[in-house]
Design brief:
Blueprint: E1 12-13, E2 24-32, E3 35-46, E4 49-56, E5 61-64, E6 68-72, E7 75-80, E8 85-92, E9 95-102, E10 105-113, E11 133-142, E12 147-156, E13 164-168, E14 179-180, E15 183-184, H1 185-195, E16 199-203, H2 220-236, E17 242-247, H3 250-258, E18 264-270, H4 277-291, H5 296-315, H6 321-334, H7 344-358, H8 361-367, H9 372-375, E19 382-387, H10 395-408, E20 414-419, H11 434-437, H12 446-458
Parallel strand pairs: 13-16, 13-17, 17-18, 18-19, 19-20
Antiparallel strand pairs: 1-4, 2-3, 2-10, 3-4, 4-5, 6-7, 7-8, 8-9, 9-10, 11-12, 12-16, 14-15
Helix pairs in contact: 2-3, 4-5, 5-6, 6-7
């Protein structure tokens, strides 16, 4: 899952002499319509200059670059030519009082010196030491793809026999904590489970931390082989009651692995796909568009386009797929009202960027997936959960799909649970939008943690 950056910046340099009083990290909060956006400016000395980067913690991005800055007579001036914003403020003791302007918008922004170890976002569920359980940093190999994976294994103290789970992240590169918007959901799950007597292995995705093997040609099958390697790693350590807990894409990887590896004894699917992916993405696009205020005509138009693209991706037999997608996108853009059409250069840029994403090996493989091919092979215990405010994996249709597949498998050991008013991250939410994820302090609803842990311990 990805969100649009509010601000994009690059390194900026102070061209004038500076005083050490400006060096350090400065925190401020923009009160934008509908939300508060915290920003962090990190100012470091670099010879006779200062190098500054900016973080947007709520959006999960760090070291974002800016274009130009000056600090003269206690006046700080920042300019980003890329995003066309400016900040001007006066340093007064440990505060910089100023204003942020972008286009026609101008907002006050007071920056305060950040304290060492201070958390910018309120995330009260993030675990804090000391920990009353064993923590082991682990490294193992995926023999299929010849890549190295790193992670953290937490196990209960003073307990010889216990179930152990592997946490599997969703789409995109994520660290072992599945961190997004400052929420470390897998760390919260691992801490909760281990305290209750369940071992947990959580792993950095390829290209993150010490895990390697990231290439442009990876598909869900490659990530499934990583999870399977994790199962074998735990089995070699002597664990026998091994389960998989997968979120989003990880929720389809779990049955993919379990359908082929008998060492997997149970599964928890957290908003894992249960219907054909093209249908799932159609529902997702529709739900997001509705939440954004799209009209019925716009919903119909985007639905036709999406189905056309998905059909081409699933059935395209020619070698030049990218050009085929470009033609579809070009035709659709030309249907827009003239005043809404980008100029030719911008149009080609948009078409090239979108066609590259759509025709990536990962997306082509993913769009062709039918989760039923894996769910209908499982007779092991399965807990499938969704939030009713999930707009990325729409709850009702998705859970019905998993239920139907498990019934087809004559599985007598499954439970389906829809949690009211929870979003895709299983936070207690108001509307379920992606933008809301970072605004919520809760990382994961306690009811979800209790349900998953109690269900696992009963197995």
């Amino acid at each position: 899952m990805k969100t649009t950056l509010f601000i994009i910046i690059s390194y900026f340099y102070f061209s004038s002499l500076f005083g050490q009083e400006i060096v350090g990290s400065w925190v401020g909060e923009l009160d934008i319509p509908g939300a508060k956006l915290p920003l962090v400016f990190n100012i470091k000395p670099n010879g006779n200059e200062i190098v500054v980067t900016m973080d947007s913690p709520m959006q999960g991005v760090k070291d974002i670059p800016i274009t130009k800055a000056t600090f003269d007579k206690n006046e700080l001036a920042l300019t980003s030519s890329n995003m066309q914003f400016q900040y001007k403020g006066a340093l007064k003791s440990d505060e910089i009082e100023g204003s942020f302007s972008q286009g026609q918008m101008s907002l006050p922004l007071v920056l305060k010196r950040k304290k060492d170890g201070e958390s910018i976002l309120k995330r009260p569920q993030t675990p804090i030491a000391p920990f009353d359980y064993k923590i082991e940093e682990v490294t193992f190999e995926n023999p299929t793809d010849k890549n190295t994976l790193t992670g953290t294994l937490t196990t209960p103290n003073n307990k010889k026999e216990f179930p152990i789970v592997i946490l599997i992240t969703g789409s995109g590169q994520q660290n072992r904590d599945s961190e997004i918007f400052g929420h470390k959901s897998f760390w919260v799950i691992a801490d909760d489970f281990t305290k209750k007597g369940i071992g947990v292995l959580r792993i950095d995705d390829r290209g993150i931390g010490g895990s390697n093997g990231l290439t442009e040609n990876l598909t869900t099958q490659n990530f499934a082989s990583d999870s399977n390697s994790a199962v074998e790693f735990l089995a070699k350590k002597g664990y026998k009651n091994i389960g998989l807990v997968g979120h989003s894409e990880g929720g389809i990887i779990a049955p993919m692995v379990a359908s082929q590896n008998k060492k997997v004894k149970f599964i928890v699917s957290m908003a894992g796909p249960g219907i054909p992916i093209d249908e799932l993405l159609f529902l997702q696009s529709n739900a997001i568009a509705k939440l954004s205020g799209a009209t019925e005509a716009e919903l119909k138009s985007s639905g036709i386009l999406n189905r056309k693209i998905y059909s081409v991706l699933k059935n395209f037999s020619e070698t030049d797929l990218k050009n085929g997608i470009k033609e579809i996108l070009s035709e659709e853009m030309k249907k827009l009202p003239v005043d809404q059409q980008p100029n030719e250069k911008e149009m080609q840029k948009l078409i090239n960027e979108e066609s590259k994403k759509i025709t990536s090996p990962w997306f082509i493989y993913f769009i062709k997936l039918n989760p039923d091919d894996y769910w209908n092979k499982l007779k092991i215990p399965v807990l499938a959960i969704n939030g009713t405010l999930d707009i990325q994996v729409v709850s009702e249709e998705n859970l019905n799909g998993i239920k139907s597949s498990l019934e087809k498998a004559n599985n007598k050991q499954f439970e389906i649970v829809a949690f009211s008013n929870l979003n895709h991250l299983f936070q207690e939410a108001k509307i379920g939008s992606v933008e809301e994820y970072g605004q919520l302090e809760q990382t994961i609803a306690p009811a979800v943690l209790d349900k998953m842990s109690s269900w696992i311990l009963k197995r």
